[in-house]
Every structure is written in C-alpha cells, then in structure tokens.
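Sorry, explain these tokens?

___
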Amino acid sequence: MRPLIILFLAVLVAFLFARFADDAPTVETPTIDPDPVEASDPPPVEEEEETPPVVEEEEPPVPPAPTLPSDWHFAPGNLIDGTSTTRGDSGVTDPSVVSPTMRFPVEDGPAFPNSQIFGKGGGGYASGSWPGVAGSEKDAENFDYPWQDNYCEVRFGYDSELCPGGEAHRGQDIRPKTCENAVHWAVAPEDGHVSHIGSISINIFGAETGYIYKYLHVQDPLPAGITIGAPVTKGQRIARISDRLKANSRATTVHLHFEIWGGAEINGVNTGVTALPPYSSLVESYLDLTEANPDQIDPVEPPELLSQCTEPQWP
C-alpha cells in the first residue's frame, strides 16, 4: 500500500511540474553580435568662452601745473649794479605793497619787469655814460625770470625824494611775454575812470584807492570807448603796448612804463602825493594772475623776425 501511495505522489508532482512549466513566460536569451558597431560619440559640448575681466585703463598722470621759480624775482630796491643816479645798485628796499588789490597791468602772463635801457638792445643812458648791453631786444634774456626793480634807476629831470641822488626813473618797466609791437594789452588796475590821454600815455584814476596809475609807451588808436572821463573796470583793456617814445619816435623797445601816484608811508615817512614804488604791488598782483592762470608762467618763444618788434603789428 505504501509503495502505491508513493508512486501516486510522484506522478502527481510530475504532472504539476509539467503543467506549470508550460504556463511560465519564455525568457529570451539576448543575442550577442559577434561584430558590434561602436556607438557614435555624443556631440561635444561647447564650452562657454570666459569673458576676460574688464581692466580699466589707468589715466595718464596729470603733469603738475607750472609754478613760478623759487628765485623768480629779486628783492625790492635791488638794481642792476651801477645803474642808479649815484651809480649804485640800491633803491627803495621797503617791501610795502602800496596797492594790495591792484590787478596786474598787463593782460596776460608771462610778463617781465626789468630794466629796458640796461637790458639787451636797450642802449644804455646819457649817450653811453651809463653804457647799455649789446644784443637784440628780442633776446630771450629780456623775457625771462628773475624780475628786477628799476624804480630808482638813473633818469635826469625826474625828482624823487625816495631814491639816492634825488632823481630817478620813478616807475617800473614791464616787458610783455614777447616784443611783438602793439600786440599785447595793458589793462586797468582797478575800477575807476580815464583821467588823462597823451600821445603815448594814458592815466587811470582808481576809485577805491584814489591813486593815479600812469601807463607810457602805448600805441594809438585806443580801444573804442576809452576817452577822457570814461569809466573803466578792473582788467579792462585800455591800450596796446608798443615802443613809442614820443608821438613820432620809436627810440625805445617794446615795454610798458608803469607808475603809481598817491600818498603812502615809505620807510616810515609819509610821502605825500608822489610816484610810489610799484615793484612790490606788481609782485603781489602777478601772484594773483599766475595762481588763476598757471599756464601763463613759463617764458615763450620770441618772434621769428626782429621787424615784428620794431614795426607795429596793429593796426
């Protein structure tokens, strides 16, 4: 009996196995290609170009503004040796600025207060008794620093109680930037009016100070509106600077002779109305001019031709 049961169970197991084997899903075995084709490479990924950093260009360094040389002027009263009436080299050494708010009387810099008659081409004085210096009036030495006072320079017939010998120049010669004739402008030193016009001169009365400012060696015709009694403003053009010595004479070189007339205390003494030493006032007013216009400090090239200095370039 037991063998029959065992046989029955074996047959049943075989039957069930066969039945379930027929119903099971077929699993396909993958076929391996004996000559596989390599897959193509993926397209390259374009790399974004790196934007170079923006480099700001450095501004070129700004050159320093011109400045006056440390030795741009001699002290007041320091004359060229031997050029005073007593053949000395000393004038009024008091540094008082008699007109502290004055405008420099030449419109543009550079300008050069120095001796006209004892500069190059100036000719000297008194027929050679005070000899001049050889050279041309357009020599660069005439148009360069340092400045030099010539208020007490030798002149006969012009009284000056402030200068050795009692006679003197009584003003300051000022060369404009070049010797070009009737090109450079003289301007009013302060608000006021025209008080005198001569054949080679013009005077301005200063409303603030009460001084009379005298300008010599100017060229006519004067600008429109510049007539006796006409009002002027500080810095206004009043005349062109020339080489006129008299109405019909050009026996000097291109320069402005500048005087200040009034009363002041000089060397501790009240002068009364007289020609005052203008040198220190010119120094102060030139500092104002060049501080506002540093491009007007450095000397410039002289004109090419001497005739540009000896013959008026206007009108």
Remarks:
- The CA atoms of residues 178 and 302 lie 6 Å apart.
- Helices lie at 2-23, 279-292, 307-310.
